[in-house]
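Reviewers asked in the last cycle whether our approach scales beyond single polypeptides. To address this, we selected a multi-component target totalling 438 residues and predicted its structure end to end. The input consisted of the following lines:
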Amino acid sequence: MTKKQGLAISIATGDSRSISKQIVDAIRIKVAKGELDSGAQLPSVRGLAMQLSINPNTVAKAYAELTAEGWLQARQGLGLYVAEARARLSTEERDHRLNEAVNRFVNEVVALGVSHDAALTRLDQALRHVMRRSA
Amino acid sequence: MKTSTPIIHTQGLAMQFAGKAAINHLDLTLEPGITHAIVGANGAGKSTLFRILLGFMQPSAGQAWILGCASHALTPEVRGRIGFVNEEHTLPSWMRVEQLVALQRSLYPRWRQPLYDEIIGHFDVGPRQQIAELSRGERAGVNLALSVAQAPELLILDEPTLGLDVVAKRAFIEALLYTAEEEARSLIYCSHQMDEIERVADNLIILERGTLRHVSPPDEFTDGIRYWIAEMPFRGPDPHSVPGLLEVQRIDGLHHYLVLDTDDSFGDFLKQHGARSMHSMPVSLDRAINGFLAKGHRVPVAA
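The resulting structure, written as structure tokens, was:
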């Protein structure tokens, strides 16, 4: 039996990410940081929609995406749970997404004119901070 | 009552006022069971469209159907399946809330008292209060509760939160979104409030001067628009030659472009025109819609 836990996330309107994408990102981060353990139950679609004052279909869409990527798992009639930490994406898909992420990062950083080493150090710190608890 | 009949369907719909087109050959089909947000500048033709759809106005040309029935021949039975909430929230001011509720209950055979009670619970409105004593936000609440309790298959809301304070706005949106969602009601929501559109819309419809400009889920719309900042030689390419251009500004010697750019090819265009540096970023729904609608009113590039 798993205990119900709240999902402390917030969304912002006027962001360049859609609300659905913000939910996906927030839950991925929570799982990566270990703030949501595998087996933890997610709020119901309607519950999270009410918490965030948004259309329930938007939550359903975010949950569907997280489920398709293997972050969440449906249990028949019981709701959604954080999936076991395993390869959550296929190798090609992960490669593809890593490439995209690196490109975005490089584009932004180049525009900032920070030195190569300074950028790497900061990236390393940020990754360590996030990964520490999920390692 | 699950059905796949479009809630709204128009074919070649046109409406002229004194030679000026308020609706211009509009072909629109909206599927049931979701929330459609209609966005458009003032004068985009929204109000005219609703008047035609509800049979209060005859179009100059074309045809319109609502809930599968021809708009010019709506029966009282069909009208009873449509709820309409506009920004005026005009209710008979001399009545008490309970009198108004009793009246509506007698008019609508599908009246659902629990829905009324649930929605009015979001607002501080007592049954003995006189309508004239209510604030604008409270009137909006009564109006919404009355409309939803009619259990309409289609609920049309035309700028329902106009002039409401933040608290009333939030109460209104919550009452709208979380009441009886299991009924899969169809909603049409018109608003200029982009934060509300983001919160409520499954589908985004953009009207401009009576013409349909865009239909898709909101995130697909924003995905197709990007903001580029580039350092261009001289004055940059002629704005008329810039593909998908929505907006261009020159700020501190850099060119800022807002463009329709679905495949990231805009970067190649800038390179071909000698860009010395450039970067791009996604935009918010608010920014995307503004840019999209402002296209007709393009500002000339400052020297």
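Residues 118 and 179 of chain B are 7 Å apart (CA to CA). We regard this as preliminary and will revisit it once experimental data from Aim 1 are available.
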